[in-house]
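Batch job 17 of 40 flagged for manual review because the log was empty.
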Amino acid sequence: MASAPTATAAGADLRNYVLVTGAYWVETLVDGATRMLVLFYFYELGYSPFTIASLFVFYEIFGIVTNLVGGWLAARFGLRTTLFMGLATQVLALSMLGFAPQAWLVVPYVMASQALSGIAKDLTKMSSKSAVKLVVPAGDESALYRWVAVLTGSKNALKGVGFFLGGLMLTLVGFQTSMLILAATVLLALALAMKLMRGHLGSPDAGARFKQMFSNERAVNVLAAARIFLFASRDVWFVVGLPVYLETVLGWSFWQTGGFLAIWVIGYGIVQASAPGFVRRRGADAGAEPDGGTAAHLAFLLAVFPAAIAVGLTVDLDPTAVLVLGLIAFGVVFAMNSAVHSYLILAYSDNNRATMNVGFYYMANAGGRLVGTILSGLLYQWQGLTACLWASLAFVLAAAALSLLLPSRKASPSGAAPATGPAPG
């Protein structure tokens, strides 16, 4: 049986966690800015919604691969290694766009750059999310839920700031100069992390095997499947359909669209960070941590909003009011549902499998975003925003149905012990 970590080791893990989280925040800010820069720049050049969506296809595909391989790399070599790999890859991806001749900025080249950005983002995210398990005392599920919610919420708030920053930078300094500024920012974060971080951030396991990435735990597999549909339900209308609708149908400027999306994502992040207290106060078992039933209830509630927005647009209600109010409601419930998922994947994992399970889970997350991104451009080009919203409803209902199969507090992932007891997994 492994001995308990010493105070010195715990202090080192906390120091490293602060560093990896800071690097993750920088990467998140840059990733959000890059997304808006690419979307708006190529829309200005006259690309169709489906073509713009295709620019991000490799970003999501390589995110799937990265989470699968990255979880194994983190288990084998430590989270420090995957963090540095992620930041270095992002510097390369941004430099490709910043230094390239203008003639190179065509779809295949940008897709290749976005593939590297997808790898970078998911290596960094996986490192930070897995590191939470190292600094929260074993069995303290309440603290685990709070830490995960704050990390996830702060990430999304910063991504919203990045959306705003991307639109601002495109207006003030242009596309390629913006990319070089962002690349320099990530390079600085990498240099500081390399100088200040000590150890591997966790205990590398030389015996970790790639085949172990594929979870044999039913709860983890069901949660990953639900995650695919949950994130497809958001991105199928939010990634391409919504911003293009705001600009082409409602006549919003790039500045207004970027600012609105930024405010929405920042609010979404704030709700995620406060999710623990809100969900506990309103749970059936007051004060208890969420379980599979919580995820299912939130998903069924979430299904109301894409349907309501689609109906509102179809019957010619004021589209601005319908979208703004509908997005606020959708964002609040989606944020709580996502925070519950992020808590459950760690609650279902013991320390030895946390990095692999998190990698597997975020592979599913990237798969959902990939499906949503492709369909967002395709459905919008085919039948407009309402088609995207009805697809969102179908995906939410699938996530809700799968969540009904997740264990409750009365049963562990394996069906033997409490899922949120002293030693999860």
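Reviewer: the log was empty due to a logging misconfiguration, but the result itself is present. The two ends are 16 Å apart (CA to CA). Unflagging and moving on to job 18.
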